[in-house]
Every structure is written in structure tokens, then in C-alpha cells.
């Protein structure tokens, strides 16, 4: 079934994404009749954090069913099919582990930590270099089994360490840039592969990949992981950390959301460091832990290991 017979619906109408649950999903329609097709056939426009995209021909391959299904109000909805995870070939991954003198993010790490520590952080987190945009890097998502689930390509300013968002937001995925189709992205935590190297050290989770790397450079008491987006913290991902001591460090503005997700997980606690210390200006900017650590008077901050509270039967992290 050729995909040229279909196109993504125009007009700005959005539906709930089958993968991330956000109202950012665009469905496919028949170019001849304008008829919508199966509910789960479409693309989420949250490319940087979700990446769900199921094409009509892929739907046919998965189900053997024609995607033309007119849903009637009284008709029972089909269960949403979740394709198996796709993985990046190790050769593609290996080819990116070079060119660091032209990698803006790695150059910034060198200016921050010095060449030796920057090299160690780059090697630990398997940071790659991309040709998508001059100076861009790749944050690889490698699960605890060593499988490469995806690579997020981003561009940073080599002097400030800030993301380049003008004239557009420079972020995409390796499978999108290489036009690997079909590709079913099912993300894991960034840095998850580090869990296999140390089964004792407590885990800290932040939002951005940059923050995890910066925090790891300043505070070695934790294995620092990142969700890759505020909405990417899921209870299912926390369940995979069963038996580990976990502390969440949400960005400003995400504390309540992350706290509700962590509720009921006895091995997970949440730090309110930023909530207690932030100014109004910092709240409006949505600052994160990296912003705090990068302040000149905070570079020697030491976050103690979480301690088990026998009375509350959970770990707590007493952060200054």
C-alpha cells in the first residue's frame, strides 16, 4: 500500500497521542476522499520527546488489516497496537564517537571541567558527534541491556553551553535524520546503561541530558540519569529502578507533577532544593539543577547520599 495515497491531516486539529497521551497527534487521511483512517495511524508532533509515527503501510504490515476503519459512536474501539521497539545499528552509533574537537557541547564541557574530566564524561555517557548541523552532538539512549533505542541530535553554543533555538529549535532524532523507516522509538532513560556498571550507587534523575552530565561532573555521589523531557518521567520507568535508591531533581515548574508520579514508590524521593532556593526570576525562566550548579558560588556543592528513614520506610535526601 503506497503512502502517497495518504497525507497528514491539515488544519491544525490534534488528537491524543497513543504513546505519550498528549493532545499533539495528527492523523492520516485519504488524499482522494479526505477520509480519516485508523485511530493510531499518524504522527505525534512532539518529535523531541515522543517521536511516535505509525504510517498506513506499517499499520497494514502489523495487523494485516486495511487502515480504512470508520469508527461509529456505538462501535467498540480497537485496542491500540504498540509496535515493538526499534534499535539503532551499533555501526551507526560507533561512527559518531569521534570529531569531538568540532562538537560544540564537548568543547563547552572542556571549558567547564578541563579536557581530562570532559573526556571522562563524554566517554561515560557515550556522547556522539553529528553532521546534521555543524557542531551538533548526539545524546544516545542506551538501555541497561546495551541496546541503542535512539539518539537525540542537538546543537549547543560552544561558549555558553546553551541550546541553539534560533532561527529554529535545533533538535531531531538520528532515525529521522537518516530516514530509517519504519522506526518505532520507545525511549529509555538517558544514561541507563550506567546502571550495569554500579549496582550500589544511588540514582538521581533530572530532566535534560545536559543537566545529568553537568551534575555528574560536579557530584559523583549519584548515577545521574535524564528523562529527556518533563513529560517523559513515567511510573513504568521508575518501576525499572526497583531496588535502587532514587532521588528526583525536577526543574522549576515540574515539582508537583514529578511528585505525583513518584507517589507510592517507596524507593523514590524528590528533592525540593530548587523550590526552596529559587528566586521569582529563576522560576519564570524554569531553571534546572545545572543552572544552580553552574553558579560560581555553588560549584563545590555536595549532595549527600539518600539515607533510609526507618520510620517512614523510605529513602530521603537531605539536600542543603
Task: Determine the strand fraction and express it as a percent band.
Answer: 15-25%
**Regions with pLDDT < 50 over 5+ consecutive residues?**
70-74, 297-302, 304-320
Sheet bearing the most strands, described?
4 strands, antiparallel
User: How far from one another are the termini?
Assistant: 60 Å
> C-alpha Rg, in Å?
21 Å
CATH topology (fold) name of the largest domain: Dna Topoisomerase Vi A Subunit, Chain: A, domain 2
Q: Could you tell me the number of beta strands?
A: 14
What is the CATH architecture term of the largest domain? 3-Layer(aba) Sandwich
**Count of individual helical segments:** 11
Write down the oligomeric state.
single chain
CATH class category name of the largest domain? Alpha Beta
Structural class: alpha+beta
Strand order of the largest sheet: 1-2-3-4
DSSP helix fraction: 10-25%
In round numbers, the mean pLDDT is 84
Instruction: Give the SSE string.
Output: EEEEHHHHEEEEHEHEHEHEHHHEE
Shape: globular
How many discrete domains?
3
